[in-house]
Amino acid sequence: MMTTKDLDAFFEAGWNGHDVDFLMTFMADDCVFESTAGSDACGTRHVGRERVREAFTRVFAAFPDARFGAVRHFVSGDRGLSEWIFTGTTGDGRKVEVNGCDVFTFRHDKIAVKSSFFKNRTAS
Questions:
Q1: pTM, to two decimals
Q2: Domain 4-118 CATH assignment equals 3.40.50.1970
Q3: For each of the chain's 124 residues, which pLDDT tens digit applies?
Q4: In what order do the strands lie in the sheet with 27-34?
Q5: At 123, is the secondary structure helix, strand, or coil?
Q6: Which one of 16, 30, 43, 59 is at 20 to 30 Å from 101 when CA atoms are compared?
Q7: Domain residue ranges in the chain
Q8: CA–CA distance, 88 with 70 (Å, rounded to integer)
């Protein structure tokens, strides 16, 4: 079963370490990542390991100093939630700081679905 300790590692070593290979060790073979923005109600839906890996990689390309701070996790059975403050700088030097969360569905000790949400705040 996925635990809050697992989610700590996912965020600290994976996201804050900018380690896509490590992040992917947590993802199911048929994983789905629903990003915060896109033309669909769910944002942009990335399906399968290859597409999810590409999407995670694009986050680091867009925000080379991306960091998730003040992270808190809740896990109940096959569902979980992580709250965080995302900070980063865009390629053109604009600073971003925004509260957000991920809603997870777990299957067989892996993340099957990661659906991300954050407050809509203008970069400065």
A1: 0.92
A2: no
A3: 899 999 999 999 999 999 999 999 999 999 999 999 888 888 899 999 999 999 999 999 999 999 999 999 999 999 999 999 999 998 889 999 999 999 999 999 999 999 999 988 766 6
A4: 45-47, 27-34, 110-118, 95-107, 79-89, 67-76
A5: coil
A6: 30
A7: 4-118
A8: 14
